[in-house]
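Response to reviewer comment R2.3. The reviewers asked that we include at least one raw input/output pair. We reproduce the pair for Prolactin here without editing.
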Amino acid sequence: MSKCCTLILFLISLGGRLDTMNSLQTSSLVTVPDLFDRVIQHSRRMHALSSELFTEFEKYLLPSINHLDRSPHRCHTARILTPNGKENAQRTPREELTEVILRLLFAWREPLMHFHQNLHHSKDYSSASHRKAKQMSEMVHELNHGVEILTEKIQLLGEVSNSLRGLWVRDHQGSRAMSDYQLLHCFRRDSNKVQNYLKILKCRVLPEPSC
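Raw output as returned:
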């Protein structure tokens, strides 16, 4: 593919992400249904990006990595109790599900920031990987902000209690010991959970026939 075509595809992708980012930044002005749609769309893109980077890592770098560095370890978010499976998530009270989403997002803000900074100084990764790592770091901050605004709105509607604020402030501890492989593996898993939990929470707050 020519450099021109590559640049065009990147700009198209970036434009779509900027549209979502701008919509989250102005989320205090939109309705609850629209805001749910926006955070779900943003979470879908974030998970897709994490899957792309994890796949690239497995394909190009994993064969040369020490076996111990790729062995499964507890994710730093393992202390956050999450519903196992769709049925359990559907039975989870809305307050608990909202808290889980916020805690997962907050727990990844610092690790992804450090991951991006480390990749920026590494020669083992391509410029495309650097860019994706930067986007992931930015997207988790943006989604965290959007979900916080959404939480405030559904609290005002009486759909969840006001006892959620500040419950997730220490969940990032212990993340710096992870290897890059472990970090990408864990974030891909957690970003998928966030996406699924947001969809379920929307159905709990705004029941629809499709739910």
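The chain is about 70% helix and 0% strand. Residues 32-205 form a domain with the Growth Hormone; Chain: A; fold (CATH 1.20.1250.10). Further pairs are available on request from the corresponding author.
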